[in-house]
């Protein structure tokens, strides 16, 4: 986003705010205007900051951050600033640059510990706090008003985020943060604008070092962060203007979130219309109820939620009991250790289900099967001729698939290829579930097939309908994703998948649910067509 000055920002602000995903960019644009001197007009008698900065730097020349910079050439700022501003480095204006505590925290204690998750949108949020006991070791790590907290280790997108501490009472900070304490004549909120600006983000991307799943910026690099300062009074004036503008943006965002919540409530009303078999009423009023593809996604997921919680079709006393079905699954299961996980579901189920339904785990209700890929360069493992091999799926094959059933695979695994790797034949009726990159693609096999290692597919036992499993995995996928560990990438492993819950209705009710959801999916397709038109 290129905004030349505050006038052009104000002229286009109302339009920009309505564009999805633009608010973070608008905030960044405000910071960019602030650190380039274009947010507020410069006074005719603006004070030259060179003398002011010289006195600050001279006062700190014997401090540790400044000593580390002796002989270091100041990097280019990368931003055009007014001639009255003076360039410097962060270490030259800091009295202390220090890493936080690595002591193990707990849910209670005397001293709250701020962590990287407490830094949001260039500000501190004082929720989800951990604590430490007050000990002499923490004395030099206590926060003071005006301290800047800098996130030194995080993902590549988030490393380098920062905020100013304006809290009261005793607080300390965790080891993934660096505390920067400035000379008292430097406005910390103005320095924080620099760290959060486009110039700050470009600097962070340039100096960070990358490791597995995380990036790092050390204290030495932070001390060399380049910035320019106006006079102290100008710093305060710019900060006040930024806070006023961001406050307006925050207010709009709250209103927008409230509007989104109201629209989600409307979406639920739309789903209630579907449950009550009033599809025509919904389609007749689609213009008012459903406005975006996200609204349709919400309708679809709510349908799945109703289906797997027993709220979509009525229960019948003549149906075979789901508890008896789960007992049969448990008897057939070779992994008796999963019975404990299934028992725990009875004590703490994810949500209420009808009395005739029963909870169990995927590992009891069927078999979770991984996949594999032949070694690179090994000849004769793949073919493009369907008659010469077994369909072989990767998560990319399911991307964009709108059907409940798996599309044609791009490649086929030969008998030699199947023997050369851990891929296993999956029978028709198996439910593919991508367990990484991304987690949550779901499709039912209509013919035998195999997959690469990006799947933890599910082969249901007799009595569990594949389509019902599909509805469940589509609904529950966000929970599986949220619980998946991340090393180089997020992945749901086989053991975790086997312990995932699944509700089991009587088999007759499963078929009624499938029939009803198939009807409703036709309505969902009509809504998608309506949005696309």
TrEMBL record:
Domain Type I restriction modification DNA specificity: from-to ranges: 390-522
InterPro entries on file: Restrct_endonuc_typeI_TRD (IPR000055), Restrct_endonuc_typeI_TRD_sf (IPR044946), Type-I_RE_S_subunit (IPR051212)
Molecular function GO terms recorded: endonuclease activity; hydrolase activity
Family recorded in the similarity comment: Belongs to the type-I restriction system S methylase family.
PANTHER family: TYPE I RESTRICTION ENZYME ECOKI SPECIFICITY SUBUNIT (PTHR43140:SF1), TYPE-1 RESTRICTION ENZYME ECOKI SPECIFICITY PROTEIN (PTHR43140)
Oligomeric form and interacting partners: The methyltransferase is composed of M and S polypeptides.
Protein name: Restriction endonuclease subunit S
Provenance organism: Lentzea kristufekii
């Amino acid at each position: 986003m290129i905004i030349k000055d505050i006038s052009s920002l104000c002229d286009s602000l109302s339009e920009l705010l309505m564009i999805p995903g633009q608010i973070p960019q608008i905030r960044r644009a405000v910071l960019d205007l602030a650190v380039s001197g274009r947010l507020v007009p410069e006074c005719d008698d603006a004070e030259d900051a060179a003398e002011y900065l010289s006195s600050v730097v001279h006062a700190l020349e014997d401090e540790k951050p400044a000593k580390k910079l002796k002989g270091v050439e100041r990097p280019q700022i990368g931003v055009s600033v007014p001639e009255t501003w003076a360039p410097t480095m962060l270490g030259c204006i800091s009295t202390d640059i220090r890493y936080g505590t690595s002591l193990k925290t707990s849910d209670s204690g005397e001293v709250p510990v701020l962590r990287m998750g407490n830094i949001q949108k260039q500000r501190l949020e004082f929720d989800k706090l951990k604590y430490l006991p007050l000990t002499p070791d923490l004395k030099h790590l206590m926060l003071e008003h005006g301290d800047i907290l800098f996130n030194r280790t995080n993902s590549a997108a988030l490393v380098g985020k920062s905020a100013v501490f304006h809290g009261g009472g005793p607080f300390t900070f965790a080891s993934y943060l660096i505390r920067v304490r400035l000379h008292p004549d430097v406005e910390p909120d103005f320095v924080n604008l620099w760290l959060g600006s486009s110039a700050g983000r470009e600097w962070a991307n340039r100096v960070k070092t990358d490791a597995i799943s995380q990036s790092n910026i050390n204290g030495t690099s932070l001390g060399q962060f380049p910035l320019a300062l106006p006079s102290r009074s100008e710093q305060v004036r710019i900060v006040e203007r930024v806070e006023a503008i961001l406050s307006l943006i925050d207010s709009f965002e709250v209103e927008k979130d409230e509007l989104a919540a109201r629209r989600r409530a409307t979406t639920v009303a739309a789903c209630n219309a579907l449950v009550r078999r009033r599809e025509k009423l919904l389609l007749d009023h689609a213009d008012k109820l459903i406005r975006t593809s996200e609204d349709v996604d919400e309708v679809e997921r709510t349908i799945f939620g109703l289906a797997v919680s027993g709220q979509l079709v009525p229960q019948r006393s003549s149906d075979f009991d789901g508890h008896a079905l789960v007992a049969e699954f448990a008897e057939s299961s070779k992994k008796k250790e999963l019975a404990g996980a299934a028992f725990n579901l009875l004590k703490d189920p994810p949500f209420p289900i009808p009395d005739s339904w029963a909870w169990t785990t995927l590992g009891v209700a069927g078999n979770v099967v991984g996949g594999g890929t032949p070694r690179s360069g090994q000849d004769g493992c793949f073919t493009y001729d369907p008659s010469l091999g077994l369909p072989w799926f990767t998560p990319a094959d399911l991307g964009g698939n709108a059907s409940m059933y798996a599309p044609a695979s791009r490649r086929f695994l030969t008998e030699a290829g199947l023997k050369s790797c851990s891929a296993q034949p999956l029978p028709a009726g198996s439910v593919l579930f991508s367990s990484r990159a991304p987690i949550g693609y779901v499709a039912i096999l209509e013919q035998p097939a195999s997959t690469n290692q990006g799947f933890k597919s599910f082969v249901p036992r007799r009595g569990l309908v594949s389509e019902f499993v599909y509805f469940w995995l589509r609904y529950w996928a966000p929970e599986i994703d949220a619980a998946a560990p991340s090393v180089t990438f997020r992945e749901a492993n086989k053991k975790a998948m086997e312990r995932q819950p699944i509700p089991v209705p009587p088999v007759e009710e499963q078929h009624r649910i499938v029939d009803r959801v198939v009807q409703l999916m036709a309505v969902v397709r009509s809504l998608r067509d309506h949005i696309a038109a």
